[in-house]
Amino acid sequence: MKYIIIFILLFTATAYALNTQTNTSGSNTSIEGNYTGGSTTYESGSESSSTTTNNSTSNIKSSPPSASAPPVSSMTQDVCAVGVSVGVQTFGIGLSGGKHVIDKNCERLKLARILQDFGMKVAAVAILCQDERVFEAMIQAGTPCPIDGKIGKDAMALWSKYDHERPDFKAYTIRIKERLKKDEEEQRLMTIEFEKLEQEQILNEIKKKKNIEWKDPR
To answer: Residues 115, 117, 119, 122: what is their CA dihedral angle, to the nearest 10 degrees?
Structure first.
């Protein structure tokens, strides 16, 4: 009887221990993202191992900074310089830069104006004649630009002799070649017309001879 009571007490204590539940208080954490739950595998000894895979990815793209062309301006109003700047931007690198460029036409005008103020009119014209547009305009107007201290017809003779020194030499050479082609074409047409006239003259002489031979002697 004593052993039966001990057995009942041990059985009751074991059952009570198996039904005991432990509660642990704590804060809840919100987990966001794309999670893939893995499988739980039970092994010997009532142990389990679980695997959780996180597939969330983050792809953040932002536009690259732009390269701005730096401002470049002339220091004073009396300087014939023009500011030029440029900027190039790619996804990997950006470049920008700038510099001053001398305006030759502006310098030419200023020099001609100063020479004109000093009373050097021929020298002022000679400075302007360095521009091929002015040079050609002077030729077309019949007032050739000065050369070696010569003006007028004497200057024109020197420009014809030393044509390689003309500011518009390239355009002048092209123009001369085109004119020669045109003259050759005109000469060819004139030759054809002249040959036609010769043939007509020969035919007329032949006709006259025939008329004389067949003329009635009576």
So the answer is: 40
pLDDT at 27: 47
Pairwise pLDDT comparison (28 vs 68), residue with the higher score = 68
Cα separation, 172 vs 185, in Å, equals 20
> Is the pLDDT assigned to residue 63 strictly greater than 80?
no
Closest CA to 129 of 154, 160, 155: 155
Distance CA 8, CA 202 (A): 160
Q: How far apart are the first and last CA of the chain?
A: 195
- Where in the sequence is the domain holding 82, given as residue range(s)? 66-102
Is 72 found in the same domain as 117?
Answer: no
Contact assessment for residue 138 and residue 121, using Cβ atoms and an 8 Å cutoff: no
Same domain, yes or no: 115 and 162: yes
Which helix (H) or strand (E) segment holds residue 42: the answer is strand 35-43
Three-state SS at 4:
helix
Tokens 């932002």: give the residue.
62
- Confidence check: pLDDT of 163 > 50: yes
Q: Is the pTM of this model over 0.70?
A: no
